[in-house]
Every structure is written in structure tokens, then in C-alpha cells.
Amino acid sequence: MELTVLVIKSLVILAVFGITLLIATYSTYAERKVAAFLQDRIGPNRAGPFGLLQPIADAGKMFFKEDFIPAQANKWLFILGPCLAMLTALMSSAVIPFGDSIRYGSFEVPVQGIDVNVGVLYVFGVVSLGVYGVMIGGWASNNKFSLLGAIRAASQNISYEVALGLSIIAILMMTGSLSLRHIVNEQNGFFQWNVFTQPLGFVIFLTCAFAECNRTPFDLPECETELVGGYHTEYSSMKLGFYLFAEYINMFTSSAIISTLYFGGFQYPFMHQVHDALVDSLGSTVGHNIATGIGTAVLFGKIFFFIFFFMWVRWTIPRFRFDQLMNLGWKTLIPLSILNVVLTGAGLLFDKFKYATWLIVIVMIIMAATNAIKAPRRKPVTVPQL
Amino acid sequence: MEGFFMAFYRMGWHRTAANYVRFIANLRSFLSLLSMNTASYLPSDYIPIFIQLSLALGFIVVTMLVTHNIGPKRHSVKKDDPFECGIPTQGDARAPISIKYFLVAILFVLFDVEVIFMYPWAVNFMQLGQEGFIQMVLFMGLLLAGFYYVIRKGVLKWE
Amino acid sequence: MNQFNTFLASFKNLTTAGYLFYGLGLITLISAISVVTAKNPIHSVLALIFTFFCLTGHYMLLNAQFLAIVNIIVYAGAIMVLFLFAIMFLNLKEEDEEAKTNVTKMAAVIVGGVLMVLLLSIFNYAPVGTYNPASFDAKTGLVERLGIVLYSDYILPFELASILFLVAMVGAVMLGKREAGDPHF
Questions:
Q1: Shortest Cα–Cα distance, B141 to chain A (Å)
Q2: What is the mean predicted confidence (pLDDT) over C38-57?
Q3: Looking at the complex, does the CB of residue B97 fall below 8 Å from at least one CB of chain C?
Q4: Where in or outside the cell (chain A) (predicted)?
């Protein structure tokens, strides 16, 4: 690898790193604003214009809080827990293609940390390591609530990891590569986006992404009504901040991965026409780089939509019960994703037909409709007159 | 000005500088040795991961050091106890827990290996064709039979 | 002594990959030894996870990229989680560690020694793979090649693996079946 290429890649990684942290910081602000909007409140508006300095104030507060380690905790493991959670969260963005490529002199460097042909598996591997931060933190606290929260979190994460892995397989069968860049390049053209060819796979993946990020409706590990604060009950100061921050970083990365796998990544309709027009008018270097920039901006638009979607769901849907959660993961999502794989395979073998899984979706919609029609109508609640 | 250069020379820093230049040159040749261009399917494709790793580790270590060193530190016996909603702590927190969680973990390991087996198959799906499809359906059928047994035995029943 | 000098001299004309290999090998050995010597079982598991990462590094140096990542997913990500669960269940403490008698220690030393002699003799006779730059193909260890070989030449072991999974599942259910009245929460 030439030094120039390495320097450009380092700059890309540095930029992605900074943007990740910035977006995670401002996600806390956005979350409170979205919550306020959905609940007809105003939300944070005291620190700076529109409360925009609120995340900075929060971070400062976190830093100056007492960094408390319980007497009965294992000190080093207690410190290691949040560090591991943060490390796994920060490492996962390396394989995501954030744009096409940058031209610099005679080099053409892809806007991506590493362009390897095991990209999907890299994401899967980092996700599978995410359990340790929670488990070690919860165990080291030596607190009953923390331990129960950690065990719950670990069971939930590993249960949904299986369905997560199975739901991607259908995409790989169509693409024939584990490289995320290859998967994005396959989705050129609006109706080639995997969300149209794999609607069921998308829904399963989205659900599992929610569960892996411990977001509502799957936030049982930190369920206040049962477990006080869950695995981070004993944590304070920036160690608590790391756990919360890691959740927001995971939200950003999973939004990016959902956009990459199912919504065409940095692709947008008429991309090639725009690229050619820019290259014609501004030259092959500047025009190409600007076209890449537009693609990156489009990708970030998709990512912001999914971050908003995460928040929207959080303030709309109530939390699952633990048995409901496990039943959904094991008895619904895993069989469904296996069915998805089999049907996709059958469709591909039969004349390379990519849209076979719509069959399951149609059957499910019909079943839901008949259920809704057959179900006995609920009596309207009568309010007793006073 | 001349005296300054003489002092520089006498302290041997010019050698340090020359060594530094040589180090950079070595680094250059080291990097070009590993591979010549991008996407070469060689281990050098993974070098940028270490940049990301060092960034992440640096961020974490600096933040941890800062947060440990600013902020108050006050200890007391009651405060250092594990939190149990205000009542005195009862027993050890690390009590045995339900075996179900452990069974879920075992099932997860089995399914994880199965999913990993499916990745090389899915990548080569079009090439392996019908034969490969039947083989994988057989594999999954046997596994699903076991899964059906597990469900019927009520291992995944939570109450 | 002379041999030792040539061994030292061989370090000077190693390639970059050679230095990386020796460095990584040293780290692997240290972390593997600390798995055995660690007092706290959780520290032991963490050291084992780190050892698996080092092994992934070795796979990387051999350019077996698929195996490298799978090593992380299956060993570091799944089996080690199982280990952590087991440790949390057993609730091991340093004080109630069972006393090891001299007989067990002796038996352990003998078994370990025999295993080491066996491994060394196998290593002595085994053909060591050589590297031919003319026929080198960087894509050999990638997932595409591996899939083709696995699903054509090694299809029988693959199908037998599913029977192994079936047996493992049934065994887990039999071992972990909860009797009525057992505490659970």
C-alpha cells in the first residue's frame, strides 16, 4: 500500500471517527427533541440557541461527576466493562463504504476504512464482541440488578445475533460477495435496492438491529421498573457516559449498515447521469470528487432518517416482556429467516427471479387481514357519567 | 548562529536527524513491500484497522484518565456498598441463576456455527446451483429437526 | 553455541512478515500462559479471548481471511460467551478452590509432558509447507475458493456436522432439563 494511499485512508478514518462522535453526541440532543415533539413539549432550549449546546453541557457534567467504584467491585474489570463497550462500538465503522472514491493525482482511494471481501463478517464479528462490555461490567459491579441486567442483555444479544446473521444470507446469495462495497455497487437502480428484493429480510434485520442496540422496545437490560438501571446501575461519571454513548454510536453504525445493505448505500437515482455531467463540466478529478461528495451526503441523509426512525419507535412502542422477547427471537425470527433463505434460493434457481420473498410478505399480510376481520370487535370503552 | 550549529553538531543531533530520515524511508519501503496497490487480497489491506484501533484506544484511555482525575472523591462505608434500593445489602450478588440462560447460550453457539457454514455457501450460491441448494436444505432440515425437539421439550419456554 | 549464533543471525535478514510473525507469536504465548496462571476465572477468559485475537492475526499473516474472521465470530464471540455464562453460574471464588493433591499434580505433569513430546515429534516429521512465489495466488484463502472446496470435495463431513449439531442439541436439552420445583428467576 502506497504511503499516499495510506495517508488518505487515515484521513478518511479520522473524518469518519470524528463524524461518528459528533453524530452520537448530537443524537442525545435529537432524541430529547424528538421525544419532546412526540409528547407535545418543547425539549431542551436553555443552553445556547435552541438548546444546541445541551450535549456539551451534558458531557461537561459527566466529566466532573465523581468517578465512583464500589468497594466490593472488581476494580479493573469494572473499568474495563465500559471501555470494551465503547471500543466495539467505535471499531465497527471501518468497513462501511461512505462514498465512491476520491481521486488524488494518479490514485483512486475508496471512501472506506478497509475494503476487504469479508466486510459483512467483520460487522458480524464486532457485533458478537459487543456482549462482553455489558457482561463484564454487570458482573464486576457485584450488584444483583447489574448481574441480572447483564445476563438479560447477553441472552438478548446472542438470541438476536442468530437471526441477524441469517437475514443477511439472502442478500449474499443474490450478490455473491461478502464485500459491502460490492453489495452497494450491485444495487444500482432504484428498484434494485435490496429493500425491494428482500422486504422480509429487511424487517428481520431492522428488528435485530434494534435488539442488538438495546433500544426500545428491546431495552430490557436497563428496564427501570424491574432492574433499577440494569447493568449500569453502579456506574457513574464518564463510565456511565461510555455505556450511553456506545448505544448512540451503535445506533449510528447500524443505521449506516441498514442503509448500505438495503437502501443502496451511497447510490441514488440518476447517480451516473449526475456523475457524468459533473465530470464533463469540472474535469475528471474535481467533478468525480464532487460526485463522490454528493453520494456521501445522500448516504448521511439515509442514516439520519434511520436514526430518526430509531427515536420515533422508542417514543411510540412500549417495552416487550422478557418471554415475549425470547419467543419473538427464537420462535418467529429464526424460522422466518430460514424460510426467507429457502424461498430466495428457490426463486434464484428458477430463472434468477429476485422478488420471490414478496410471496411470504403477501401471505403474512393476508393472514393479518383475516385475523383482524375475524377477531371479535372490542366494545368501545364507556366512560361512566358522573 | 555558527555557535548554535556547532553545539548542534557536538551533541550529535545531526545523527539523530539522519536516523529519523532513514526511519521514514524504511517505513515507506516497509509499506510498499506489503503490497503495491489497493484491493490486492493481501494482509496489508487490513493496515487501516490498526489506525482505527489506535484512534479508538487513544480516545478511550484519554477520556478515562481525565474522568478519573477530575471530579470529587469521597468514600464512606454506606456509599461503597452495592445499591439495593436503600435497604442494607443482603447476601452475595453473584448467586446462581436460571439454567435457561445457559441453554440459550449453548443453542446460540450451535446456531452461530450453522450460520457461519452458510456464508461460504451463500457466496457461491449461483455456482453451486441446484445440487448445493439441496445439500443445504438437508443440512438445515436436520438442524431444524433438532430445533423442533428443543422447542417441544420446552427449553425456550419462559414464564 | 554456534547454532545459537546462526539463529540470532537469521533474525537480521528476516522479512517484515517474519518480524510480525515472531512478535505476534511471543504475544500469543504470553497471553496463552496467562490463561493458565490467572487467579480470577474472568481474567482467564479475557486472556483466552486475547489469545484468539492473536490467532486471528496468525491467520491474517497466512492470508486466510475468512478463517481469521470466523475465528473471532465463533471462538471469541460465541464460545467465550458460553464460558463467561458458565463462570457466572458456577460462581467460582478464590477461597473455595478445591485443593489439588500431589497425585493430581503429578498426573497433570505427566499428561502434559507426553502431549508436548507427541506434538514435538509430530512437528519434527510433518512436511512443512513451502512457499513458491511463482505459483502464489492471493485469493486461495478467500471465502469463494473455500466455499467451492467445502461444498464439492468435503460435502460428506459437512453433512455429518449437521448430525453432530443434532446430537449436541439433544445432549444439551438432556443435561439442562429443569425439574419441577427448581429455583429459577
A1: 10
A2: 89
A3: yes
A4: Cell membrane; Membrane
Query: What's the pLDDT tens digit per position in A209-230?
Result: 998 888 878 776 666 666 777 7
Handedness of CA C104, C109, C112, C115 (dihedral sign): negative
The pLDDT tens digits of the residues spanning C7-29 come to: 677 766 667 777 888 888 899 99
Is the CB of A166 inside 8 Å of chain C's CB atoms? Answer: no
Length of chain C: 185
Name residue, grid cell 446472542: A158
Q: Shortest CB distance from A154 goes to which of C42, C68, C81?
A: C81
What distance, in Å, lies between the first and last C-alpha atoms of chain A? Answer: 80
Angle separating helix axes B99-123 and C155-176, nearest 10 degrees: 170
Q: Identify any residues that bridge with A101 across adjacent strands, giving them in sequence order.
A: A110
- Residue A344 in contact with residue A174, Cβ under 8 Å? yes
Contacts of C78 in chain A (CB under 8 A): 128, 158
* Unique residue bearing C-alpha cell 414464564: B159
C-alpha cell at B36: 503495491
Q: Do A158 and B108 touch (CB under 8 A)?
A: yes
CA distance C81 to A154: 8
Q: Interface pTM (ipTM) of the complex?
A: 0.83
Please state, in angstroms and rounded to a whole number, the distance separating the CA atoms of residues B89 and A133.
Answer: 25
Query: What are the residue boundaries of the structural domains of chain A, listed by start?
Result: 56-374
Helix (H), strand (E) at residue A108? strand A107-110
Phi, psi of A108 (to 5 degrees): -130, 105
Task: Concatenate the DSSP letters of all residues of A120-144 into one string.
Answer: HHHHHHHHHHHHHHHHHHHHHTT-H
Q: What is the CA radius of gyration of chain A?
A: 23
Chain B residues whose beta carbon lies within 8 Å of the beta carbon of residue C79: 109
In single-letter form, the type of residue at position A162 comes to V
